[in-house]
Amino acid sequence: MWVEAAAFVATLPTVPESMFDPMGPVAAEQKAHMIRVVLLTMIAIVPVLIGVPLLAWRYRRRPGSKAKYTPNWGFNGWLELTMWGVPIAIIVVLAGALVYSTKLLDPARPIGPEPMQVQAIGLNWKWVFIYPEQGVATIDRLVIPVGRPVELVMTSDTVMLSPMAAALSGQIYVMPGMVTRQNLQADRAGSTTGRNMMYNGDGFADQAFTVDAVPAQAFKTWASAASGSTVVLGAADYARIAAPGTGEQALKTLGLSDGAGGAMRLGDPALFQQVVRRYHGATPITAEMQPGTDRYDGGHEGGRAQ
Amino acid sequence: MTHPIFGALTLSDLPFAAFIADPSVTEGVAAGAQVIVFLAIFAILAVLTRYRLWGPMYRDWLCSVDHKKVGIMYMVVGVVMMARGVIEGAVMRANQMTALDGGGMLSPDHVGQLFSTHGTIMIFFVAVPLVFGLINYVLPLQLGARDMAFPVMNQISLGLTAAGAVLIMISLVVGEFGTGGWTAYPPYTSRLFSPGTGTDYWIWSVLIAGVGSTLSAFNFAVTIYKKRAPGMKMMAMPIFCWTVLCSSITLIFAMPPITVSTIMLAADRYLGFHFFTNDLGGEVMNYANLFWMFGHPEVYILILPCYGIFAEVVSNFSAKRLYGYVSLVIATMAIAVLSFSVWLHHFFTMGQGVNVNIAFGVATMAIAIPTGVKLYDWMGTMFRGRVRLSTPMVYLFGFYLLFVFGGLTGVILANPTIDYQVHNSMFLVAHFHNVLIPGVLFGVLAGLHYWFPKAFGFRLAERPGRITAVLWVIGFSLTFVPLYWVGLMGLPRRAASFANPDYVPWLIWSAVGAAVILAAVGSLLWTIWTSVVHRKDLATPIGDPWDGRTLEWSVSAPPPAYNFVTIPTVAGRDPFAAAKAAGVAYAPNPVYADITAPAPTVVGFIICVISGVFGFAMVWQVWWLAALCALGIVGSVMWLGWRKPRTVVTTAEQVKQIDAPWRQAALAGPGVDRGLEFTSANRGLAAPDMVQDA
Asked: Which pLDDT does position B657 carry in this prediction?
């Protein structure tokens, strides 16, 4: 079954990391809105780009210039009305478009009924994805079924991060002890890259993850294969891989080979909630207990007792 | 814990120690920067000693409370720091060009320090000193005043800004700088995640310089309220003074949030508080809010005076009164007020509800309205004028060409929907450079060319000046247009490496652009140097080289220490243009009287040194030294309060000796025709030019 799933992924077309080649409705609307905004704003800009050179040339100082010269003229009511009125009108229209698109693309609003929930935990410098419905966890790899709304429920177990898969949707910050949401959907199969956009130290630039949008049937095959994996991610395993390092190093720590595509069985269904809740207690979370620090001890000192 | 005498300072923090321990390329670049610093210090000491300038530097500059000298010293600080900031930018461009798959020459930590110092320096120690320098020099002269409202405090403001700048230069040679960017967002900058002293350099340089900025803002505002020439109603002030007033008020309200948030960050780092920690109720989102409550208005604090410069320049070189003065005043006020209603657009992506994002998005777009009005009003000023293509006008045209695209991308980013995509990407980096370089830097350089002959008595050479301006426009476009594109293709800001080979050609173009910008800075220095060499040909001692319209042009160049023999009485806008039109510009027989001015004092310099040492001691946790310095600062300020203010008097006879020869020359005429403005015939006296109204 592994072979089947892996073979399918290998045939996925690669989609660039940009909203200009959108894989789903969110990025498509973002692209459309951007084009709208650029065109509308041009109404205010083009007169400047044409007018300034014309004015500078027509009214350049030269002996015998036939152009009119009115050194003491400094006000005209109609002109003022235009100078204020046109930008106001453009901004009113733009503001309408802004309200429409912002409400439409609220990252926290599910795109359709029954979104599939995927939990994501940001670490230095990797991502852990948890599929509570399927009982599966992955590292640095997000697999989603084409055509089904997906709700990413996200947090951080280090500093502030900002995950984004540009071909699917925008970014939203993730912060320790807090949960933020990003809803998205893939309309076509493909493989693209997602990454952390917010600086978090030496490994920042390499903190990317693969997003594979696969047909619903292939997703089912993949998920059931993964949930039958012998490699398990429980709280103690998580504490071990949470230390600063790449996703590859984490997979190695867990004993996962490449063929498995970074997927494993979820050992502890409440893992995500534990990571979030840990920061809400009345006892200090010392450097030894915070996975992003140099002094993190991998949970050996009972730092992950809860 | 730390050493009782040396605090956290160890031998490995000393200059070149890191390079000796690890002679890699990245440490080599750092060591090279340290060599440059030491060479520069050595060169300065050598010149001061060789030409016996220690005494004059101390007496005439460091102890001076003259707003003109304080202004020039601000500009020097800004230009020196700009040299470092631009070189850092070019190093980052060069590094990223080769950073495919981690191939860059610099280590990720070094890249982190570079973008952090580059941003901190460019905002706090380049843009602020350059803008404040021009304001200091020009404001009292335009208002018809002899000095700022608080001349000694002005000197102290400069001292505090310089202390912050020196502290950041020290971070280059002793220890390291933080990697948290110019915004220093916790929890990344907390002791847990940034255990070194680098972030502390950021904290103390920003805090110390911030106090200086706050004092300056009060000084500017009070000067405008209290020191205007008799008859100069608010609505008769030069437009530059209006922009300074709005900028100062904005600054007064914007500084407390960053001062507080920085102190809170320091409390977290030094005393184990939990304002912005992950645990025990710390709230990182509060930091983002507080920082940008300052950070966004700061952009307008810097750019408003530059809008003022452009307005003065376009009116002057169109030989026409400013079109839409009232509109411009209203637009300036509108921008100042709106600047406080948009800070959240720096973190649309922090997870708050859509209605909050909508409110701040619409407010952000609304700023485009008064900004657009300003650009249109200046076009209205050129309309039916007589436009002369001086260097400041080349900068204005460069501004028009480039800034509208900064505005376009600003409107794009104001849309939360699109911001989700391009936030934290190179697109954002390109956007704010597109606003700050054509807006603030071109404005400052236009102002430099415009007022330089006033300050030094000779013009800057026109040809190299225009070449510099064109190099800036080309260099900017080459550097930042590709960055917009790679940002849209997904390259995040602050990345030490990347995996997508498609970025490489664009990043090479960007690095070429950075080289052109370096050439522009070189060309700027060359312009100044060649102008100094040819200062006799370029001399404009009478003081009105551009057929100016406002009071600063009515005095000699450079102006006497007291600025005005008699404080002018003003009847309306553009008083000097009106006086020239009426033929009464230079009164033949002024009444000479004694002029009293505050005496020079060394207190600003002392506070500069003590606060610099205080910052250094706090960074390295040398508590005894920090305590001593804190006492010293408190003591100096108390001494200021109790001392008997000393004054110096320039007697009527002395004033006459300085003034009479100049006045005779000004009255002797004839002035220079505008057609010969850029030739050596221009001695700073303007002939009447095309005065007819059609």
From this structure: 96
